[in-house]
Design brief:
Layout (H helix, E strand, L loop, with lengths): L6 H18 L5 H28 L1
Keywords: Membrane, Transmembrane, Transmembrane helix
Length: about 60
């Protein structure tokens, strides 16, 4: 299964990971804030890396 075959499921998964990350950052412990930031920023970072790799290839 690739994202191109199921774009809605892929978009929902990215949105869910971002929302879970943002909600996790509301916790009091510092470790949860870091984990929440990683979850929230992860999809954006991966998307940017894939875009830059695509542009370099051609």
């Amino acid at each position: 299964m690739t994202w191109a075959q199921h774009p809605i499921i892929f978009a929902m998964a990215i949105t869910a990971a971002t929302f879970v990350g943002l909600a996790t950052m509301l916790a009091d412990a510092a470790a949860w804030k870091v984990a929440g930031f990683v979850l929230a920023a992860g999809p954006v970072g991966v998307g940017l890396a894939r875009y830059l790799a695509y542009r370099r290839r051609g």
